[in-house]
Amino acid sequence: MFLQAAIVALLIASIVFSFSIIVARNKWKRLLSFSLVTGKVIMIIVLYALYTETRFFLDVAIIYALLSYIGDIVLANYMQEWRKPQK
To answer: Which residues of the chain fall below pLDDT 70?
Structure first.
């Protein structure tokens, strides 16, 4: 019961932050919202793995976390370089 409620709460939070990605005007706020959504999705995957007692989903969550981290670094680096004036 608790795991189901936590999954639903995280889904609602993910939807709110997904809407924030679309609405935000500042690109850094969009990146932060993207990071929050990926963190929530990772937590949902882990809670689902606990609920179904399946270890495979924990591996999926670890891989998704690594890809999310790399994606955040790449996007932040791209936005930082894009901000510099051309010579």
So the answer is: 83-87
Domain residue extents for the chain: 2-83
Residue 87 and residue 67: Cα distance in Å, rounded? Answer: 33
Cα distance between residue 20 and residue 34, in whole Å: 9
d(CA 27, CA 6): 29
- Are 35 and 14 within 8 A, CB to CB? no
Which residue is listed with tokens 């993910």? 14
Asked whether 8 and 47 are in contact (CB, 8 A), the reply is no
Q: By the 8 A CB rule, do 72 and 53 touch? A: no
CATH code: domain 2-83 is 1.10.287
What is the greatest pairwise CA distance in the chain?
A: 59
- DSSP-derived secondary structure letter, 54: -
CA 2 distance to own-chain centroid: 22
